[in-house]
Amino acid sequence: MFSTMLSKNSNKKPTEKLFNFYQDSSLSRMINFLNEAVVVIDANGTIEMLNSTSASLLGIEKDKLLGHNLLELVIDDTGKLQTYVIESLDAGQQGLISSPPMEVNLQADKGNKTQVCVEMSISTLPEAFSSANTLYLCILRDLTLHKAEYGSLLHKANTDYLTGLANRHRFAEYLDKQWDVCEQDDVPLSIIFIDIDHFKDFNDQYGHIAGDRCLKRIGETISLSLPNRDTLAARYGGEEFALVLPRCSAQTAQLLAIRIKRHISQLSTRQFALSQESELTVSMGVATQMENRYSSKEGLLNAADTLLYQAKSQGRDQICFL
Ligand SMILES: Nc1nc2c(ncn2[C@@H]2O[C@H](COP(=O)(O)OP(=O)(O)OP(=O)(O)O)[C@@H](O)[C@H]2O)c(=O)[nH]1
Fold first, then answer.
1. Do residues 195 and 283 make contact, with C-beta atoms less than 8 angstroms apart?
2. Coil vs helix vs strand at 172
3. Are strands 319-321 and 282-289 parallel, antiparallel or unpaired?
4. What is the 8-class DSSP label of residue 13?
5. What value of ipTM does the predicted structure carry?
6. Distance CA 283, CA 194 (A)
7. For the chain, which residues score pLDDT lower than 70?
8. Is the minimum distance from the CB of 237 to ligand 1 under 6 angstroms?
């Protein structure tokens, strides 16, 4: 599999087996003791030495890698990384270099993994190790675990734990971005606020656990009612939800609000494992930025909030919009 990968990328044969020369060198013996994945390349990127840790990182036997070009293993459609590595190597010919670490995807052959994400740093080896040719030490650090952990932390930082919707932080970030798009492209942007009516009474009557189940179910109902992937639904506060609707006119936002309200009203309290049937209603405020109606995103948010409180003060269970 690895040879197929390489032959796809290059018609070149492995370069003259200079690596045989280095195989028993003290450097080669030394890197084999290291826990870090280390690859030694020449100025063209040809792999002259590597240790077992790097071979196992890529899931490719050492002998198959020796003599091949490290750049052929780099996966980068733009070619920017290859250029960067080549430039670093060229610079290394002029003097000692130590490139800042960069994130690279390398071809691999590990079970069902055909690539591995690593942080690569390149430094020139002192002449004493290099004989006639300049050699470079590439240290590869596996980022797979780090990336998975980062992804999971990012998800947690942006998500409301109870409902799985976006949290307020993510809401603010997304609104910022969409406000800029709305200003630049002169397209509408709508906000919907949704607040459960008399939720304190619900909690008092059925308890907080049932209250949590109710919030979760309403979150799911909102999610399932969203028109497209650009719409962001967030839990804005305790029993309040908020939606950002990019490129969405006032009329479309109002129709969506009506749909969500209908779907929520179809939820029966029996679904929250309660014996008694009682009505669950929400109040909503809908505001749209169009024709520069608001001078800031805060103005837009205030408008949606004021409309929500108008809906509450007019008797709840209704939608207010301009
Ligand atoms: N179960 C549960 N309750 C919550 C959570 N967050 C906030 N609440 C409750 O939501 C209720 C909100 O009460 P209020 O702000 O008085 O609003 P309300 O009773 O819905 O009345 P109106 O909004 O005026 O219709 C409080 O009882 C909070 O304890 C939560 O995560 N879980």
1. yes
2. helix
3. parallel
4. P
5. 0.98
6. 6
7. 1-24, 92-97, 128-132, 269-276
8. no
